[in-house]
Amino acid sequence: MIAAQLAGTFGLRGFKVFVADLDNQATATFLWGTHTKARERLPATVTPMAFAGTQLPDHLLELSATQELILLDCPPILESEPVHTSLLAADLVLIPVPPSRGDVMSSLQAGEFAAKVRDKDNPSMRIAYVVNMMRRGVFHGKAEEDLRRLAQEPVLKSKIGLRAAFPESQARNCTVQWIDSRSSASQEIEALANEVAALIGLPKKRTKGAKK
């Protein structure tokens, strides 16, 4: 969800964006890459690439010549070839964390795994956590506090709430901005996109007339 919404947001800002769907289930491709409506409602290319295997680096290099931003939607299995290749190629690893104690611990482990790859093979890569599916409640707030206290990598200020607009955007093959650009969901995604842009040195919005 976050990969697709960020892709659509940067697409709306004028960037040429590609989402490499590396999950064998290809959920992102099914929801946003195959429907005619999706091409109009989410301005980014979403393509299944789990098949690429050892050829993934070559595909990414080729894509980098024509795309201004490439998002890699990885499977949840850390020790897999697509994840390892993504960590070698990435400028930024964004780890979504639902606000529960178990999810916080597993997400911190994912961050530690990414940090080991960074320290060994990709020293310029940045890692950040983003609180996802946030909701009200003492236990959820405590889980967020634990994440911010224990994380060895930055936890972004932006938080994505558990909002009906996100499953609706799946059903309608669109960005949340397409549903309502003034909604809380849209504001949250826009704020997250601003933080991501700052972390990777990308302008918040593509300058009109700039060469693609």
From TrEMBL:
Boundaries of every CobQ/CobB/MinD/ParA nucleotide binding domain copy: 1-173
SUPFAM superfamilies linked:
P-loop containing nucleoside triphosphate hydrolases (SSF52540)
Write down the InterPro entries for this protein, in alphabetical order: CobQ/CobB/MinD/ParA_Nub-bd_dom, DNA_Partitioning_ATPase, P-loop_NTPase
Q: Which PANTHER family match?
A: COBQ_COBB_MIND_PARA NUCLEOTIDE BINDING DOMAIN-CONTAINING PROTEIN (PTHR13696:SF96), P-LOOP CONTAINING NUCLEOSIDE TRIPHOSPHATE HYDROLASE (PTHR13696)
- Output this protein's name: CobQ/CobB/MinD/ParA nucleotide binding domain-containing protein
